[in-house]
Amino acid sequence: MDQTPLPQINHQHETFTEGLLLDCGTVLAPLQIAYRTYGTLNADRSNAILICHALTGDQYVAEQQPLTGKPAWWGNLVGPAKPVDTNRYFVICANVLGGCMGSTGPRSPRSTGSEDLWGIDLPPITIQDMVRAQKMLVNRLQITRLFAVVGGSMGGMQVLAWASLFPEAVFAAVPVATAPYHSAQNIAFHEVGRQAIFADPDFFGGRYWEHGVVPSRGLAVARMTAHITYLSEAALTRKFGRRLQGNNALSPVLFGERFAVESYLEHQGSSFVRRFDANSYLCITRAMDFFDLAADHGGSLASAFRGSRTRFLLVSFSSDWLFPTTESRILARALNQVAANVSFVEIISDKGHDAFLLDEPDFHRTVAGFLGGAAEAAGLK
Amino acid sequence: MDQTPLPQINHQHETFTEGLLLDCGTVLAPLQIAYRTYGTLNADRSNAILICHALTGDQYVAEQQPLTGKPAWWGNLVGPAKPVDTNRYFVICANVLGGCMGSTGPRSPRSTGSEDLWGIDLPPITIQDMVRAQKMLVNRLQITRLFAVVGGSMGGMQVLAWASLFPEAVFAAVPVATAPYHSAQNIAFHEVGRQAIFADPDFFGGRYWEHGVVPSRGLAVARMTAHITYLSEAALTRKFGRRLQGNNALSPVLFGERFAVESYLEHQGSSFVRRFDANSYLCITRAMDFFDLAADHGGSLASAFRGSRTRFLLVSFSSDWLFPTTESRILARALNQVAANVSFVEIISDKGHDAFLLDEPDFHRTVAGFLGGAAEAAGLK
């Protein structure tokens, strides 16, 4: 497996020397936020849409990823004449705090000019910290109110945190395939991934870069486990079933043949380690685990949104078992409790959690329609 | 984590010097089958019930496990005055071929007197091989026909293989929480467990005993992953929810606190490595993956049971997502197609796959009732 450390690319970014006071009490300074924009900000700066990415996503929402050369990760939703139409809207997407694509994270120096990196010692980051960092970027771009904030999975958690922390700055919110808290089962899946990373001898207590290696096997196992949870059983069966495919390179003696689903997972694991940092994976999975909006509001989820004038579109997918419809329903109920403006759509799909990234016409029509209506209400031209 | 190799206990066993011709074409000789019996075989040798254990089970179905000191793993179902009543039936339970509790497996010598162990070079074992080995034991006990064969999960696969390979030797069959094939999702979960074991530097290409260690961290990660699949989300939420519990011993700096569900999983992982052999885990998960009764019968599951006079009781559990009710239904349909005698009960439980091992009164009543009726039909006193 590839052991080469991730290259450091010079991503477009803003630097905030004053730093950010994190939920844990530490000031992280300087703060760097890497981001990309698409389309044109209109004269009254009212057509900005912020896209929040998921656990292993990045800021390259609508263009080729420079490290992997892969196409835009949400190119079917965001772009010219797409549901999030960059001919009409000014789209911003930032790498999350704790990430590894140019925003401050485990690969950042501990202080300006320092040779030593944060690594695993980066103070714990919360979803709210990520959102506060994005708010600093939005302020720097001189945008007072975002027309919309849109995101799926962990991106959806950020959308919820935006609507809760900065209700006046969010005209419309689209949390997709997400939940107001991370479930015990999801924490459990994250934990086995982390344990696989910790168990890798190349982890070196989180200081692997000092040894010129990365804990690639552990990170690959973490990715493989997570990947299963992104798909539905139906999708796995349709794609692979019990089809055999070639020999088992990893253990030819014991097993001889291998299943196509195994080759697929192995590919997912090994390509992931070439684009993602293990300490970032630890940091961000932990942020998700600790996300619990109700707990942050004295046990009342509704309180997180009291008085909100934001228009919400909640979207879930019927076969998503990582963030099942029941969790979006809890959210819808809480929003109804405080008389928020909320639409809730469950998209029928057998593609599992991953559906939010795939070509799902019903989903895309729903988003386009909602944004169109909201634009009218906002008086956007 | 505990690195001590598993102690070799002298388990009760039978030896078959002629060995067994495996599905892969190799003769495994000598063959040793470790087993336990409970109750008394009646005069006409007609009251024997064979219990087939699951992936990580063993022959100690109704008594304390000698290695761990833990209570009988199916003590709520099997024992005096229990649904499988050892006052009435003669119960046999054997460690599966490929296991690590005394039957021939990766910890066995390659040949009589050899110092070298099979390890990962053990020829691949199938579910049918396990059953043929059990048949040799049953023959040695001079039992021509088993009154019943009962098993859950991988034990249920063995029950199906028994009914298919030796229909005249099985009066009644009780496959519980199982399926006629292993699904793509289940293969995928097994594969990440195996990759975690392979990634452990103490695996030493499967020859870890030569180094006086065991790949405990990899095996623990495998167990943790699998354990999540044994529970339902509802069960995890009820047991742990998002409760925090003490500090994170494994990584105090990054995470500070840890969730109760994480401590629980860690305990499951670390206690498992003290009782199970990593090569056995590889060997047996692979046997499950390759199980596909329909494929073995030209694509027709019904053909596996054509002409069968066995009475079947199929049991599934409503919240089991590892072996969901849909898969038992496929089985029921195939049995109906060949006019087999089949009852099918879905037990309503929110405890997931694990429910078959737990105190589920509906399940126990169902088994007791079915066996009582079958005993009458068989003319058992």
Shape of chain A: globular
Radius of gyration of chain A from CA coordinates: 20 Å
Q: How many domains, in number, for the residues of chain A?
A: 2
Identify low-pLDDT runs of chain A: 248-254
Distance between the termini of chain A: 52 Å
CATH architecture of the largest domain in chain A: 3-Layer(aba) Sandwich
Q: How does the SSE layout of this entry go?
A:
The structure is a homodimer of 381-residue chains.
Chain A: E1 13-16, E2 20-21, E3 27-28, E4 31-38, E5 48-52, E6 78-79, E7 84-85, E8 90-94, H1 127-140, E9 146-152, H2 154-165, E10 170-176, H3 184-199, H4 216-230, H5 233-239, E11 244-247, H6 252-255, E12 257-259, H7 260-272, H8 278-289, E13 311-317, H9 325-337, E14 341-347, H10 361-378
Parallel strand pairs in A: 5-8, 5-9, 6-7, 9-10, 10-13, 13-14
Antiparallel strand pairs in A: 1-4, 2-3, 4-8, 11-12
Helix pairs in contact in A: 1-2, 3-4, 3-8, 4-7
Structure keywords:
Rossmann fold, 2 domains, globular, homodimer, eight-stranded mixed beta sheet, Rna Polymerase Sigma Factor, Chain: A, two-stranded antiparallel sheet, 381 residues, alpha/beta
Description:
Two copies of one chain form a homodimer. The first copy, chain A, has 381 residues and is an alpha/beta fold. Chain A has two domains: 13-183 and 293-378, 3-Layer(aba) Sandwich (Rossmann fold), CATH 3.40.50.1820; 186-286, Orthogonal Bundle (Rna Polymerase Sigma Factor, Chain: A), CATH 1.10.1740. Helix content of chain A is 33%, strand content 17%. Chain A has ten helices and 14 strands. In chain A, strands 1-4-8-5-9-10-13-14 form an eight-stranded mixed sheet, sandwiched between helices. Chain A has a two-stranded antiparallel ribbon with strand order 2-3. A two-stranded parallel sheet of chain A has the order 6-7. In chain A, strand 2 (20-21) and strand 3 (27-28) form a beta hairpin. In chain A, helix 1 crosses helix 2, helix 3 (184-199) packs antiparallel against helix 8 (278-289) and helix 4 (216-230) crosses helix 7. The first copy, chain A, is globular. The termini of chain A are far apart. Mean pLDDT of chain A is 94; it is low at 248-254. At the A-B interface, helix 3, helix 4, helix 5, helix 6 and helix 7 of A face helix 3, helix 4, helix 5, helix 6 and helix 7 of B. Chains A, B: InterPro entries: AB_hydrolase_1, AB_hydrolase_fold, HAT_MetX-like. Chains A, B: Belongs to the AB hydrolase superfamily. MetX family. Chains A, B: Keywords: Acyltransferase, Amino-acid biosynthesis, Cytoplasm, Methionine biosynthesis, Transferase. Chains A, B: It is an enzyme of class 2 (transferase). Chains A, B: Transfers an acetyl group from acetyl-CoA to L-homoserine, forming acetyl-L-homoserine.
